[in-house]
Design goal:
Blueprint lengths: L5 E9 L8 E10 L5 H14 L22 E2 L2 E2 L21 E5 L8 E3 L2 E2 L2 H8 L21 H11 L6 H5 L6 H12 L8 H14 L10 H5 L7 H14 L1
Parallel strand pairs: 1-5
Antiparallel strand pairs: 1-2, 3-4, 3-5, 6-7
The structure holds iron/sulfur cluster (SF4) and FE2/S2 (inorganic) cluster.
The site of FE2/S2 (inorganic) cluster (FES) has 14 residues, from loops.
């Protein structure tokens, strides 16, 4: 049985560069398969724009498997779109209906300046990680995996936090543009494991210091970050980051 194709109206943010003013431009994409991903639908739009001699819409993507965190955009007012726990590249057009108008905008935050159209500069996250979101102690060669026993409940919590892909949706959804969920995920996954313990206190101090320096806002517990996170990272990690911070102070 043939799959019914749909026609979509798009309103897409176009902005030449970080200095220029942006605006929403309207486009139509016809014969969209419901099995296409949102990015494949944008690929079709871009092929059409190139054929007409117009500039394609710039957007970031890499893995298209929900792993790399580059593909974030705000779709109908929601970071990564309407499907919970799903990155933009994993969102399918079956979430939309024939004739629907979809607004597509970049993630907006002072610390994430727009480079062009839907592409933003997320290097603020890299600078946070570079302050200590890793283990630098010399552990010699890789030890046997079972030589350090870790309770399953703790290992699960650490792995859940480690699932953060650094997409920035948490920042885009937060009314304060806070990076607390991202930073807390990085602090949590290392603080929970024995390997992360030696640098635990300096790590929380340096990462939170850099988070503030980058111009992200403060967390005031709206939990919008958790609602849009494609990896369903829990705000429980923010509470843990606060406990780690106070522990490091005293
Ligand atoms: S916490 Fe979630 S929303 Fe924020 S950067 Fe990580 S994966 Fe993306
Ligand atoms: S393109 Fe890699 S997470 Fe979407």
């Amino acid at each position: 049985m043939a799959i019914a194709k749909i026609n979509i109206n798009l309103k897409i943010w176009r902005q030449e560069n970080s200095k220029s003013r942006g605006r929403l431009e309207s486009y139509k994409v016809n014969d969209v398969s419901p099995d296409m991903s949102f990015l494949e639908m944008l690929d079709i739009l871009n092929e059409d724009l190139i054929r007409r001699g117009e500039l394609p819409v710039e957007f970031d993507s890499d893995c298209r498997e929900g792993i790399c965190g580059t593909c974030g955009m705000v779709i109908n007012g929601i970071a990564h779109g309407p499907k919970r726990g799903t990155a933009t590249c994993q969102l399918h057009m079956r979430q939309f209906h024939d004739g629907q108008t979809i607004t597509v905008e970049p993630f907006r935050a002072r610390a994430f300046p727009v480079i062009k159209d839907l592409v933003i500069d997320r290097s603020a996250f890299d600078r946070i990680i570079s302050r200590g979101g890793y283990i630098s102690v010399n552990t010699g060669s890789a030890p046997e995996a079972n030589s350090i026993l870790i309770p399953k409940e703790i290992a699960d919590k650490a792995m859940d936090a480690a699932a953060c892909i650094g997409c920035g949706a948490c920042v885009a959804a937060c009314p304060n543009a806070s990076a607390a969920l991202f930073t807390a995920a990085k602090i949590s996954h290392l603080a929970l494991l024995p390997q992360g313990n030696p640098e635990r206190k300096t790590r929380v101090r340096l990462l939170t210091e850099q988070m503030d320096r980058e111009g992200f806002g403060n967390c005031s517990n709206h939990a919008e970050c958790e609602a849009v996170c494609p990896k369903l990272i829990s705000i429980e990690n923010i509470a843990r980051m606060r406990r780690e911070f106070w522990r490091a102070l005293f």
